[in-house]
Amino acid sequence: MKKWSGRSAGTGLRNISSALVLFCTMGVALAQTPPTPPPGPPNAEQRLEHLATLLDLTDAQKAQVKTILDAQHAKMRAQFEAARAAGTKPTSEEMKAAREQSKTETLQQLSSVLNASQLKKFEVLMQDERGPGKGPRGHWRGDAAPPPPQN
Fold first, then answer.
1. How many CA atoms lie within 13 A of 66 on its CB side?
2. In the beta sheet, which residues pair with residue 140?
3. Radius of gyration of the chain measured on its C-alpha atoms
């Protein structure tokens, strides 16, 4: 005869079912997709699409605007790289002058592509992005007073 081990058959069954439930739960938890990271700043293509929507650009205008903006970006990047290679750092006044020159050149080039209404909207968008008291990415600098609340 078998000796009684002191355990009932139900205890072993409970252990097996507990292990099975734990195993299934772990499988489901591991199979879930990780949360998507928060979106970063929009890339150049997304910004162009947004601009095309805001300005109601035709496909031809969109292509021309992209060419103009890409050329201006490449020119500014080249100036930055040249200064970096020379080991110099432009003053804030020099950087402001370069941005203003780039903005003027961009507006001149865009004036042949956009109609008057679109050009005005573009100028407003550029002012909103880098208005008085704003840093290079359109965020408020700590040393500038924020704008008054609008009602």
1. 15
2. 134
3. 31
